[in-house]
Amino acid sequence: MSEGVLTGFTVAVTAERRRDEMTALLRRRGARVVAAPALTIVPLADDEALHAATAACIGLAPDLVIATTGFGFRGWIEAAEGWGLGDRLREVLGKARIVARGPKPCGAVRAAGLTEDWAAATEASEEILERLLSEGVAGLRIVVQEHGEPQIEFVEALRSAGAAVVEVPVYRWVPPPDTAPVRRLVEQIAAGQIDAVTFTSAPAVKSFLRLAGDEEGVVLDRFRAGTLAACVGPVTAAPLVERDVPVAMPERFRLGALIKTVTDELPRRTTKLRVAGGTLEVRGHAVLIDDVPHSLAPAAMAILSALAARPGVVVGKDQLIAVLPRGNDGHAVDVAVARLRTALGSGRHIETVIKRGYRLRVDDPAA
Questions:
Q1: CATH number assigned to the domain comprising residue 278
Q2: Which residues contact residue 123 at a Cβ distance below 8 angstroms, ignoring those fewer than 6 apart?
């Protein structure tokens, strides 16, 4: 039912893990996808920090274990198996009280032959911390499975309350080995060529903004002005919310729900008009005429978007020159309009007003 619903839109995927799955889901819906991983994951079996933390966990014999992600918890057990520590780790964890940050880590805990004591209904670390502090943690030995970056405030709060805490960096995110795709994405966002950017972790948001460098402000302005920033949940969205960026997110913090949010939201943002007896819908890199897509080059799309922003009003050549990606005179406008008419398959949609400019032949705004 959703096939083709994102035709004409360009969506960026910044995740590395499950990137192919997200790309396939978006393309199935008709979107053009730009993949630009903002982070890469250090292989667990090669991670000396994880090996050391696992040994420390076994030696600690913890009273309480906090499992934050299913992917991370499963990876931890698998890595321990590879080092010959799997049985000892499961034995130690089996004697501890296990708290999970939502259903996914619960599933991973059970898959390891263990049982969680309780899970946070909100899937948020804040809920776990509030409950543990209310119960009291003084004197407890606690293991915290991290999820990509140190949980500094969370761990410090536990230590300040009297707990001994061992942090387990089950997987660590580092900048991608090739940052060129992110830099190209930043340029595309700045040029208004990206309709939505998806994020699946807060570290990815932070890394993306760091890699944007001097263009960070331009990217944030684009997010505020129209490019959709879509995040899998409030934890992921926090770095953008702190920068006053409006964020779209699903009610359920899942990848499929994130894709549905993008699928629902982007079509709501389009301009729909009745033009020359038909319905014209302006999207990111295409226009739908009576629901039939017509792909447009950047210059033609810039002209159409400018005309659609002022439906039925004559837009002067000087104003149209300003919106062209590389236009610098009236002739460039005339050429772009001619190509636009060809792409639309007819000249009836755009009217030439001699010595003044161009306008859309608007009937009434579409419902």
A1: 1.10.10.10
A2: 101, 102, 103, 233, 253
- On the question of pLDDT at 364 being above 80, the answer is no
Q: Distance of CA 226 to CAs 118, 266, 285, 311, Å?
A: 41, 10, 14, 19
- Which pair of structure tokens corresponds to residue 227? 């490019």
- 367/360 Cα distance (integer angstroms): 17
CA distance 88 to 181: 42
Query: End of a domain among 173, 201, 220?
Result: 173
Asked if 273 and 307 count as a contact pair (C-beta separation under 8 A), the reply is no
Number of H helices, E strands in the chain: 15, 19
Q: What is the largest CA-CA distance in the chain?
A: 84
- When divided into structural domains, the chain yields a total of 3
CB contact at 8 A, 226 and 194? no
Asked if residue 206 has pLDDT above 80, the reply is yes
The model's pLDDT over 110-142, given as tens digits with 9 standing for 90+, comes to 999 999 999 998 888 899 999 999 999 999 999
Residue 2 belongs to a domain? no
148 and 59, same structural domain?
yes
Q: Tokens 């499992």 belong to which residue? A: 67
Confirm whether 1 is domain-assigned.
no
Residue 302 in any domain: the answer is: yes
Using alpha carbons, select from 258, 253, 260, 366 the residue that is nearest to residue 308. 366
Transcribe 5-33 into DSSP letters: TTTT-EEEE--STTHHHHHHHHHHTT-EE
pLDDT digits (tens, 9 = 90+) for 233-287: 888 899 999 999 999 999 877 888 999 999 999 999 998 999 988 899 999 989 9
* Token pair for 62: 């913890």
Residue-range definition of the domain harbouring residue 333 = 271-365
